[in-house]
Structures are given as C-alpha cells and as structure tokens.
C-alpha cells in the first residue's frame, strides 16, 4: 500500500512538473530534461509512468476533467455554472489546467492531440444541458448539443481574453458575467431565479470540495482503524484458541 501511494505521488509530481513546463514553453519547446529537473525525479521514474512527451501531454489534458469536477446538484444548470466557475478559479492557480488550455488551443497541436480537451468539454456541457432539459430547466427551443458548443466556445473566449488582458486575474468575474448573459436565453424563469451566479461562487464550491475530501479521508482512516482492530482481535482469538486446544486434549486423555 505504501508503495502504491508513493507511485501515485510520483506520477502526480511528474504531471504537475510537465504541466508547468508546457504552460511556460509550449509543447514543442519543452524537453524531458526540463520536466525531470522540475519534478526532481529520475528518468526511470518518469518513463515508468509515461513512455513519451506526447503521453505526458495527454496525461495533462486528461487531468482537466478530474480538476473540473464538482458535487452533483439538483439543478443541472447550477451544476454547469459551478463547473465553469471552479475551472475559472483553478485556471490561474493550477498549471495542470492552464497547460491543458494551451495544449488544446495551440493551432499546431491539432494534428497531435486532435482538439485536445475541447471535444471532451463540449461533451460535459452537452450532458449537463441534456439532463437539465429532461427535468424541465430549459426553454423548449434549446438544443443541448448546439448550446453546448456555443457555451464552451464562449467560456474559452473569456479565458483567452482574460489571460491576454489581466493574466486571468479577472477571469471569475467575466465567466460569471458570461453565464448571467447566456442563461436568460435558455433557462426557464423559475429556475433562473433560483440560480447562484455570483462571481465568488467558484471560491465557495472549491471550499466545499475540500471539506468533502477531508471528510472522505477521515472516513477511510476510521474504516482502516476499525479493520486493523478487527484483524488484531481475530489474531488474538486464534492464538488463544490454539493455546486451549492441547489442554482439552489432555483432559480427554
């Protein structure tokens, strides 16, 4: 178990180092040597987890969907907004997300990674919109697939503008404003009135996620402790039973 945990930490350290290098230098200029130096691991450790620079970059792209997850909401439009705001919050704090955006949007990357994470995000948005429509949150004319493409492209445009003009310092403000402009055109009035679309929503959801993760960790530790105590009790019982057996045999003789 300890070996597995070390492997997970090493893989994460390599991905974060690769993301930082890709974000700073771009895919073509980044080298394995740069990534090794940033991660502080051996070449063997890196190649144990990733066979090539391309596989490393793909790992960075895949991590975007892990980092962008939020707790499920009863309102799927609220859940979609929360996803958008958590990504905006983390984009300027976590190189994994920032590098993923660069790898997805650089024109020369299309031949290597297709659309990068762009098709995946369109799919995430479409799925949440489809769920929202199924439970009556959307106006009748809304096409989830078409709207997902427009919303994803709009979010990306806000990200690029914010990066260009303010190093993403105002990104959460503008993502919030984007959805406040878009949602009245797709949401029913009753649902729209209940949505929390404040600019600090991402901060609050990230704190909620941290609390949930801490509780889950505590539950795992409690279960492990209970399991260890049960195992120790079983061993003790087995030892005691083994000690009693000869006494019963002697009495029988």
TrEMBL record:
Gene3D superfamilies: Tetracycline Repressor, domain 2. Residues 31-50 bind DNA. Residues 8-68 form the HTH tetR-type domain. It comes from the Bacteria. The keyword Transcription applies. InterPro entries: ArpA-like, DNA-bd_HTH_TetR-type_CS, Homeodomain-like_sf, HTH_TetR, Tet_transcr_reg_TetR-rel_C_sf. Keywords: DNA-binding, Plasmid, Transcription, Transcription regulation. NCBIfam families: ScbR_bind_reg (NF041196). This is TetR/AcrR family transcriptional regulator.
